[in-house]
Amino acid sequence: MKKIGFLSFGHWTPSPASQARSAADVLQQSIELAVAAEELGADGAYFRVHHFARQLASPFPLLAAVGARTSRIEIGTGVIDMRYENPLYMAEDAGAADLISGGRLQLGISRGSPEQVVDGWRYFGFAPGEGETEADMARRHTDVLLEVLKGEGFAEPSPRPMFANPPGLLRIEPHSEGLRDRIWWGAASDATARWAGEKGMHLMSSTLKADESGEPFHVQQRKQIEAFREAWAAAGHDRAPRVSVSRSIFALTNDLDHAYFGAEGRSADQVGQIDDMRAIFGRSYAAEPDVLVEQLKDDEAIQAADTLLLTVPNQLGVDYNAHVLESILTHVAPELGWR
């Protein structure tokens, strides 16, 4: 069995070719797609976070709205850039959204990806400390978030509070019990995957990672998953680790599918440069369902993961993206033993 959800980057473009032409469009359609995904039997609705871009940015209002409209599916991010985050304020927002959803948040966070602007986190009031890199700053913010999500008091109460306080030091409110155990780290390298395992964060691995061996993408990603699980076990956490991988997968079941994604069937891994990192980008999958089943059997990372996030072309609209999900859930997942 495998959990299957969607991952939306939430693009919008003021173009007649796009069905998401504004921020309002993409926010409303994101909620509608999550509702449709739940009705289809999918397991999760995840959203990418990018700043200074025509994409989804502030995740918690959206997560809360999705939580209020759904009752079963997991709701998450893939991922929040921790360079931009005030971890205490983030803990408040996350706690509220998690309580609204009934404890269904699965928050993916990371050091972040290449940006639209130079050092965008500086505009948000953050800067690395002396001797720190921006990646160090992201991990420092993460450490604070993980600590306050435990729900332990740390702030000295005022001797003359406006309202009566419980005894002892005060914690961030609202606190949502169990949210600390549902934090995921988006790792681009084997080393950061191990770090996530040591910290007790689940692993999110996307369609790109550091090219560390020259092997095919799915093989390197499977080895990254193994490194994560080894680190988790060595740390002695008393919970089971989870791993998600994301893929672009399209079952070609009608003429429109072929028109949109037929050419993706010739996709292959690619190698390129991301910032100062040599990266390998995983292929997309597009084929008739029976062919797709055989191709996916050979993807070692998908087989190793417990959760698969299908990246969706959100600008094609809610109805088409619901069709994309339904095709995988109906024609592909059962044949692979995922359902």
Automatic annotation (TrEMBL):
It comes from Nocardioides silvaticus. Residues 9-250 form the Luciferase-like domain. One of its GO terms (molecular function) is oxidoreductase activity, acting on paired donors, with incorporation or reduction of molecular oxygen. This is LLM class flavin-dependent oxidoreductase. InterPro entries: Bact_Lucif_Oxidored, Luciferase-like_dom, Luciferase-like_sf. PANTHER family: BLL6902 PROTEIN, LUCIFERASE-LIKE MONOOXYGENASE. One of its GO terms (cellular component) is cytosol. SUPFAM superfamilies: Bacterial luciferase-like (SSF51679).
